[in-house]
Amino acid sequence: MSNASLAIDPDPLSSDDPMMALAAGAVAAVIAAGAANLVAEPWRVARIMRGADDMTFDELASRFARRRRAAPFADINRAIAFAQLGRALESAYFRAAWDEWRRAVE
Questions:
Q1: b or e along 76-103 (b: 16 or more beta carbons within 10 Å of the residue's beta carbon)?
Q2: pLDDT 10s digits, 19-72
Q3: Which of 12, 36, 37, 42 is the residue whose CA sits 20 to 30 A from 27?
Q4: pTM above 0.90?
Q5: Cβ-defined contacts of 27-32 (< 8 Å, 24+)
Q6: Residue 34 to residue 83: CA distance in whole angstroms
Q7: Residue 65 Cα distances to 26, 49, 59, 60, 96, angstroms
Q8: Exposed / middle / buried, residue 38 (Cβ in 10 Å: 0-12, 13-18, 19+)
Q9: What angle do CA 69, 73, 79 make, to 5 degrees?
């Protein structure tokens, strides 16, 4: 088997392959569902980012941004979890839930 047969499409979302569209939709749904779970249960963030339970929202967002600029994850599960956290951080509801949860544990 040659390396050419193992080539990865640099832009899989532009593919005409219907399986790629199904896979992209499934991954997007998993990310959206995970983000919703993080809004509902912000304590779960500590499973994604070490030390998160001791951070303010701004510290968490800053650390997330710093990690996002680093090399991508080699593990698909970590990559999906991180994408879920990114989606949650975009939500005003998450910020409110995070701040409320942090006040409750302090």
A1: eeeebbbbbbbbbbeeeebbebbeeebe
A2: 877 888 888 999 999 999 999 999 999 999 999 999 999 999 999 999 989 988
A3: 42
A4: no
A5: 27/80, 30/80, 30/84, 31/80, 31/83, 31/84, 31/87, 32/87
A6: 9
A7: 25, 12, 10, 9, 19
A8: buried
A9: 100
Cα 12 to chain centroid distance, Å, stands at: 19
Rounded distance between C-alpha atoms, residue 37 and residue 70, angstroms? 25
3-state secondary structure of 2: coil
Counted residue by residue, the chain has a size of 106
In this prediction, residue 98 has a pLDDT band, given cuts at 50, 70 and 90, of: very high
| Residue 53 · residue 43 · CB < 8 Å | yes
First to last CA, the chain: 57
**Torsion angle of alpha carbons 43, 103, 91, 73, nearest 10°?**
-40
